[in-house]
Amino acid sequence: MKTTSIIVAIADNNAIGNKNELLWHIPDDLKRFKKLTSGHQVLMGKRTWESLPIKPLPNRENIVLTDIPGEIIKACTMAYSIEDALSKMNDNKECFIMGGGMIYRQFLDKADKLYITHVHKSFEADTFFPEINYKDWELIEEEKHQREGNLDFSFTYATYVRKK
Ligand SMILES: NC(=O)c1ccc[n+]([C@@H]2O[C@H](COP(=O)([O-])OP(=O)(O)OC[C@H]3O[C@@H](n4cnc5c(N)ncnc54)[C@H](OP(=O)(O)O)[C@@H]3O)[C@@H](O)[C@H]2O)c1
Q: Which of 104, 98, 97, 110 is nearest to 130 (CA)?
């Protein structure tokens, strides 16, 4: 079955990024991201692509959305509209929508599953995740993490599926 999954780390105030960078460095979350998404397609907006320290993300088909007609980025699958992106997502596989803000806003209604890292702190930011109506979602997994290493916040991995 084709599954459209959003994967995101969200602060208490819905912040997800600032100046085209992430707001935190959570090594365990990066490992989890790699483990969940490896071998799958990942879909991202052009700004998130530009923000990646290593690109393309290895062992994953990187799909990049841009409004610039005909733009090609080497080693990526390009998509020029949401419909085009949807048509490039494999049937019978999970595709991970990995941001950023513009892309999450356009895909939240289309997603079947949410992998959220809830970061238990508020941050100053210029990019936010849209409001989630949790009545539409069932929590199926939750894993709480206390402050670790240099982090001054705790965080929780939560997985939700859309209620039928
Ligand atoms: N916390 C997290 O988990 C997380 C995850 C990912 C990203 N982020 C953060 O999010 C921020 C970036 O988000 P953002 O909202 O600024 O940008 P974005 O969503 O990454 O990319 C926006 C770009 O995608 C393209 N695009 C968007 N909608 C499109 C459509 N319908 N059709 C064709 N192209 C489309 C456009 O590219 P063109 O300009 O080329 O037309 C647009 O400028 C960064 O701070 C990043 O660190 C956070």
A: 104
Over residues 84-97, the pLDDT tens digits come to 999 999 988 899 99
d(CA 14, CA 127): 9
Helices marked H in the chain = 27-37, 46-51, 82-88, 101-107
As for ligand 1, residues whose beta carbon falls within 6 Å of it are 8-9, 16-18, 20-22, 44-48, 51, 65-68, 80-82, 98-103, 106, 127
- Please tell me the distance between residue 98's alpha carbon and the centre of ligand 1 in angstroms: 9
Prediction pTM value: 0.98
Top CATH class of 3-140 equals: alpha beta
How far apart are the C-alpha atoms of 157 and 106, rounded to whole Å? 23
Radius of gyration, alpha carbons of the chain: 15
